[in-house]
Amino acid sequence: MPESTPPRKKAAAPTPERSSAPKASPSWWVPVMVGLMVLGLIWIVVFYITQQAYPIPGIGLWNLGIGFAIAMAGFIMTTRWR
């Protein structure tokens, strides 16, 4: 019995090359990141200097939480900075 010829393999399409280097952050990233950290720090300092009366009167210790949240947003941005 004659042997059949093996099926021909299709030529693989070349895969697009990916650059292994991570993309750089946008130019606005660092100023916003530093600005959030500084704003959070200023918020907390104002809260303590004014004896818990400002920056937003009437919400008490929530001012401290807001200040920490703003600063933490800046610190979280540092993990994405390239």
Q: Which helices and strands, and how do they pair?
A:
Blueprint: H1 29-49, H2 62-78
Biggest β-sheet, characterized?
A: none
Low-confidence spans: pLDDT under 50, at least 5 residues?
A: none
How much helicity do the residues have?
Answer: 40-55%
State the order of secondary-structure elements, H for helix, E for strand. Answer: HH
How many strands in all?
0
Cα-atom Rg, whole angstroms? 28 Å
Q: Please, what is the average pLDDT?
A: 90
Distance between the termini: 66 Å
Strand content: under 5%
- Structural category is mainly alpha
Shape: rod-shaped
What's the number of helices? Answer: 2
Written overview of the protein:
It is a single chain. By secondary structure, this protein is an all-alpha fold. It has a domain at 29-78. The protein is built from two helices and no strands. The chain has helices at 29-49, 62-78. The chain is rod-shaped, with a radius of gyration of 28 Å. Keywords: Cell cycle, Cell division, Cell membrane, Membrane, Transmembrane, Transmembrane helix.
Provide a brief overview of the structure:
The protein is mainly α and 82 residues long.
Feature tags:
82 residues; mainly alpha; 2 helices; 46% helix
